[in-house]
Write a structure and sequence with these properties.
heterodimer; A: mainly alpha; elongated; B: mainly alpha; 39 helices; about 70% helix; about 0% strand
């Protein structure tokens, strides 16, 4: 099971980085989303995998580590905020510049 | 508390000038003056105790584990320097009020001045040396602001940069030296370090510590070879030069040498380095000063020379010499500050500071001339002024230094004094004596009282100290010297030491020689101009420019305007470093923790996840498809969380993913629907390779982590054990969020709120731009569905709304004990409302919205803060939660926790932030030419 999750985390990272290396805003934002998935999962599994051990007092004596879960929970919400901000920036850039390329024009004008 | 308060006052007061500047420049200066005066009064109140030999201390424990505590102490040495800083500071504030022009940003000046003053006081009153170092760097920073105050002058900016590079760089050496010193002494408290002379001098680390500390002190006090920055700092307004570059900041290095004198001095290394650095600086700078035509440049080099003199005295290592050094600190501050102010007055009135264009000012500016004459005669060491007293005592000490031979130091000191006489007389003779000219850039006359009051007071002090040294400052000097050297050696300071005192003859030689030099100035000047000499600024630039070029090259290679370049660099660097660490580890085998057995359902889930993820980069050019694939991945992560014992995460991931998808779909309206194929195959292969390396690395790392037991026991054992008894909830994840780490969560909801406000502000700004509105109106519209607000959807969402809200309330209420809580509840509410927007249109929904989204965000933060502040009422720290059990008939017993109030704040903030973000995007959509709907559901007429 550990190998399945590790491979998923690795693939999400790779997809995230590949998409972030594209030249337009939209794929870059999708890439960031993938990277967030990978990072959140990574932090989550750093508490080690456990089945049927939700950290709720009274239901188990060997709970899964609740701390990474708490960290990831807020991270998920914050990554929504981040995505939303970058999205409006991408929209603004597109509407102002007339294109959605992310690189500076080598000729100097945008 | 008093020493800490004295230091804190200028920092607190630094806000005042900005507040009162509307009331005028005089109000601004007065406010600054009042702050300084208050600090001075506090200091004076402590003076009697300090003069009795007591040490006033403040101790505020901050980080005892790092031995970083806010400890301050006030002894004789601190009293003398603090008095100097505040006393001269007051005069500078007065002088600057009349010196600065109306067009100068006065409030900025006074704010910088107070910051600098606070930093200086911090240096002289700190007990903890780490704290002292912070103040030390703060003086470098605040002096940078002051030197570059006239931002429009290139020499001001360059001078400020040079001063920062030299003194700040020296500060780094100082930090290293002080840390070594603290390690040797086993304490970072000066009071403790000062008791450990033997241990420090016996340590093999003594020499490196000494060299590093001296580098810092020499750089600050402009000692050779760091002397060059001070003349360039003269681009600052004259009040700054008078304050920083004669009386205070450049004395910081001297102060530190005096402060550490008890433990560092007395060794051969100390004697040789400090004495000869000071001696060389004194002679070299005095010689250069003699040939300078700019009044301020002359005074700047003369300051360097006098600082050299003081340094040399400290280097001698005898109690008498150190006492004289402190005496000269006082006398130099009085006459040099007065001289700088006079130079400023001349500049102000004649519109030039060039000695070649001046002369004859004696008749035109009698008051200024009187002040200048007293101060410059004192600088030359003419009896009975105070400069005479300290210079005489300096020569006497120098005459008794028998190393390397009986006369060398004495002769060289006399030579320095001789040049000093020469430039002092030149200042006076070429500036003020001689015939009145008719070609001044501006006809000078004495300024108003406000401008000459401060230097006149200082000149009076020069005379008073000169005539009655013991009554005027003997007490202060004794206290300072006792604090430094352990005993007071001069019961009285006198003018006449008898014919057999060598100093008398050395003095006479100096004065006679100085007059001869002045007499033959034209011929000497021709020789000086003909001789080649190194230009310090050019040497400095020759060192700095390659460094700056190198930095620029690196930056421009990495940040060449292509995001991909920077990212590839970053990824490969991280991969290389971690790959190296991986290969150099003793074993590369995976850990031995027993893996979980594979569940077929999860295997299926994993397969879909991997396929969707792999398909995304392959199909990404069709953006809608890519978005759906991303959504599939995000949504499928939720059951993964649920399976691996994280129900809270599953709920959150599910609801956030829905909201994110909605947001992205909405955003896609404004963006092209296709990504053009721009990169060629090699570039794509390169990117895939980089991404593959990163994926392999992270995947491998995750696998290595999961197959090993934690290296340390997780701290969450505490949270688990305390969840019920401490926080009153059984859901450990929720108790961590709202209770144990409530402070974090508080910060997070604020960040989320700010993110939403940023989105709102950006969309507002976009709507104001005519380019944007034109482009929005021109966006192609999809008319694939004529039914904009399908009846079925409208009815269904309206029925769903109360149910969804009930679910939200339920999730919120049970959150403390079972999966759920404010975050999820907020998202559920948000989705329910977003459905109304989608089904019935923005206008219709917006018209029915009673409360602003902004208000929800603000209310959320406020409620969470109140829940935190409430703990203060019970005398507990911020965000401490409490709970109790209540029994109300006919309900069962239930729990009431303050954490629930906090969670309510989280709920409100999340709800407001999500709605505001999406509503901002919707507002853009209204400009695309879409017709607002009036009724609950309508059909588009055009079809």
């Amino acid at each position: 099971m550990e190998a399945l999750l590790a491979s998923a985390i690795g693939l999400f990272t790779a997809v995230g980085i590949y998409l972030m290396l594209r030249l337009r805003t939209f794929p870059v934002i999708l890439g960031l989303t993938f990277l967030s998935y990978a990072v959140n999962l990574f932090i989550f599994v750093s508490g080690r995998l456990a089945v049927n051990a939700a950290p709720i007092v009274g239901t188990t004596d060997t709970p899964a580590d609740p701390l990474p879960q708490a960290l990831v929970l807020t991270a998920i919400v914050i990554s929504f905020g981040m995505t939303a901000v970058i999205m409006i920036m991408a929209i603004g850039g597109h509407l102002l510049a007339g294109h959605d390329r992310i690189d500076l024009d080598p000729r100097g004008d945008s | 508390m008093t020493p800490a308060l004295i230091v804190a006052l200028p920092f607190l007061g630094a806000i005042l000038p900005a507040l009162v500047i509307r009331a005028g420049r005089t109000a601004c200066a007065t406010a600054t003056g009042v702050v300084t005066l208050l600090a001075l009064i506090l200091l004076a109140l402590q003076a009697p105790a300090v003069l009795r030999g007591e040490v006033v201390q403040t101790r505020i424990d901050w980080l005892p584990q790092l031995r970083l505590d806010a400890t301050f102490f006030l002894d004789g040495l601190g009293l003398m320097f603090a008095g100097l800083i505040l006393g001269i500071g007051l005069l500078i504030i007065l002088y600057a009020r009349f010196y600065l022009a109306k067009s100068d940003p006065t409030s900025q000046f006074y704010t910088y001045l107070l910051l600098f003053q606070g930093a200086m006081l911090g240096i002289v009153l700190s007990d903890n040396i780490l704290l002292l170092l912070i103040f030390w760097e703060l003086t470098s920073l605040s002096s940078f602001l002051l030197i570059g105050y006239w931002k429009h002058l290139p020499e001001g900016r360059q001078g400020a940069r040079m001063a920062l590079a030299v003194t700040g760089g020296g500060g780094l050496a100082m930090i290293a030296g002080m840390l070594i010193l603290g390690q040797i002494a086993g304490s970072y408290d000066l009071t403790a370090i000062l008791l450990q002379k033997d241990a420090i001098q016996a340590s093999p680390l003594y020499l490196p510590a000494l060299l590093l500390i001296l580098t810092g002190a020499f750089a600050k006090s402009a000692q050779f070879p760091f002397h060059f920055w001070l003349p360039h700092a003269m681009a600052a307004p004259t009040p700054v030069s008078a304050y920083l570059h004669s009386a205070t900041m450049v004395k910081a290095g001297i102060f530190l040498m005096a402060r550490l004198w008890p433990v560092l001095s007395g060794t051969v290394e100390w004697f040789v380095i400090v004495t000869f650095t000071g001696l060389v600086t004194m002679i070299l700078a005095a010689k250069i000063a003699f040939y300078k035509d700019d009044l301020k440049a002359l005074l700047a080099f003369s300051t360097v020379s006098h600082l050299g003199l003081i340094t040399m005295l400290l280097g001698f290592g005898t109690v008498e010499a150190a006492t004289v050094a402190l005496f000269h600190v006082l006398t130099h501050a009085t006459f040099k500050a007065a001289l700088f102010m006079t130079a400023g007055i001349v500049d102000h009135e004649a519109h030039t500071r060039d000695l070649r264009r001046l002369g004859g000012l004696r008749r035109l500016m009698p008051v200024t001339f009187t002040i200048a004459a007293i101060a410059s005669l004192s600088m030359a060491g003419i009896p009975p002024l105070n400069g005479f007293l300290s210079k005489e005592m300096m020569l006497e000490e120098a005459a008794h230094i028998g190393w390397p031979n009986p006369w060398l130091v004495g002769v060289l000191a006399t030579l320095g004094a001789l040049f000093s006489v020469a430039y002092s007389f030149r200042f006076l003779a070429h500036g003020f004596l001689g015939p009145v000219r008719d070609d001044y850039p501006h006809t000078p006359h004495d300024p108003g009282f406000g401008l000459w009051a401060a230097p006149a007071l200082l000149a009076t002090l020069v005379v008073v100290i000169g005539l009655m040294p013991n009554q005027a400052i003997g007490w202060l000097l004794n206290a300072a010297a006792t604090a430094t050297t352990g005993r007071a050696v001069f019961s009285s300071i006198s003018h006449w030491h008898g014919l057999e005192a060598p100093a008398l003859w050395m003095s006479l030689v100096a004065i006679g020689g100085g007059l001869v030099l002045l007499g033959s100035y034209p011929r000497l000047r021709a020789l000086w101009d003909a001789a080649p000499r190194p230009e310090a600024k050019r040497l400095f630039d020759a060192v700095i420019e390659p460094l700056a070029d190198g930095a620029r090259n690196v930056t421009e290679t990495l940040h060449n305007g292509r995001f991909g370049t920077a990212l590839v660099f970053a990824v490969l660097t991280i991969a290389a470093i971690s790959g190296l660490a991986f290969l150099s580890a003793p074993s590369q085998a995976p850990g031995t923790r027993i893996p979980l057995p594979v569940d077929p359902v999860i295997l299926g889930l994993w397969l879909v996840l991997m396929l969707a993820a792999l398909a995304t980069p392959l199909l990404h050019r069709n953006r809608a498809v890519a978005l759906i694939l991303t959504g599939v991945v995000g949504l499928l992560i939720a059951p993964l969380f649920a399976y691996f014992s994280a129900p809270d995460l599953a709920l959150t991931q599910l609801s956030v993913e829905v909201v994110t998808l909605l947001l992205m779909l909405l955003a896609l309206n404004f963006l092209p629907k296709e990504t053009p194929a721009e990169s060629r195959l090699p570039r794509r292969l390169r990117d895939a390779a980089v991404a593959g390396v990163a994926g392999l690395g992270i995947g491998g790392l995750a696998y290595a982590v999961m197959t090993r037991a934690p290296a340390f026991d997780p701290i969450s054992a505490f949270h688990w054990a305390q969840s019920k008894p401490g926080a009153g909830g059984t859901n450990a994840v929720n108790t961590i969020i709202v209770d144990f780490r409530g402070y974090d969560t508080f910060g997070e909801i604020i960040v989320l709120g700010i993110a939403a406000l940023v989105i709102y502000a950006l969309s507002e700004a976009l709507l104001r731009s005519s380019t944007v509105t034109a482009r929005l109106a021109a966006l192609p519209r999809n008319r694939e569905a004529g039914d904009r607000h399908p009846m079925m959807l409208v009815v269904a969402t309206r029925l769903l709304l109360p149910m969804a809200m009930m679910v939200g309330v339920y999730i919120y209420l049970r959150g403390h004990n079972l999966p759920g809580g404010g975050f999820v509840a907020g998202l559920v509410f948000a989705i329910a409302f977003l459905m109304q927007y989608m089904a019935s249109g923005y206008d219709w929904s917006h018209a029915r919205q009673r409360y602003d989204h902004h208000v929800l965000i603000g209310l959320g933060v406020l409620v969470a803060a109140l829940a935190g502040v409430g703990a203060w009422a019970s005398g507990l720290p911020f965000l401490t939660s409490g709970y109790t059990y209540v029994h109300l008939e006919p309900l069962e017993e239930f729990e009431l926790a303050t954490a629930a109030i906090f969670d309510l704040g989280v709920f409100l903030c999340v709800l407001g932030a999500v709605l505001l973000a999406l509503a901002s995007l919707s507002r853009l959509a209204l400009r695309t030419g879409e017709l607002p709907n009036r009724a609950a559901h309508d059909l588009e007429e055009t079809r």
